[in-house]
Amino acid sequence: MQGDLFAYGRDKDEGDGRVQMLSAIVVAAAGPRRSRLDNAHGLAASCPWPVSWTSFDSVEIMSDTSRVRLFGNLDGLAATCRLVVDRPAGSRHPRVPQAVYPVDYGYLEGTVAADGGGADVFRGGAAGAGVVGLFVTADRGKRDVEVKVLVDCTVGEIERVRRLLDGVLGIGSLFVPRNGETSAG
Q1: Which residues fall within 8 angstroms of residue 22, CB to CB, at 6 or more apart?
Q2: Do residues 102 and 142 both lie within one domain?
Q3: Residues 132, 82: one domain?
Q4: Residue 30: C-alpha distances to residues 33, 58, 174 (Å)
Q5: What gap in Å lies between CA 36 and CA 73, rounded to an integer?
Q6: CA separation for the pair 172, 6 (Å, rounded)
Q7: Domain range holding 11?
Q8: Cα–Cα distance for residue pair 113/120, rounded to 1 Å
């Protein structure tokens, strides 16, 4: 997949034009270049500090080789680590009671994620499908960034997980499908 990558960040010295703290990366993969840049700048309009921009034209977002390696590694972890389900489908989030898990949620025992716990996993009902994708999330409340692996999930289950993360929990998320498409089969 090819696209334009726009990065913006905080200019701590306020005026030298150098990005010293990365605040966001915006990937625009379709449409005329001018409209992609306008959309990226529009996302930063509410930024409370001076914004500096760097554009990386035609950056390869994820090569086939890196995608195969990433998902091969995830397959290996999913196959060799026990999935501990601590929030079964239908259970409520411990801190956000209106959030109900649409599929099983847990972690891979013996792994380590950014938050110090095990690698997070959503497991759906399509037994045997394996790792179908992942979500990269950014939670400002917890001040963390995490990866949530999707195992045995259908397209509908992926969409329900997305609604849970984005709509109910208010966590920003980016779906990375195994096959480089916008939805899994």
Answers
A1: 7, 9
A2: yes
A3: yes
A4: 8, 11, 16
A5: 33
A6: 18
A7: 2-60
A8: 8
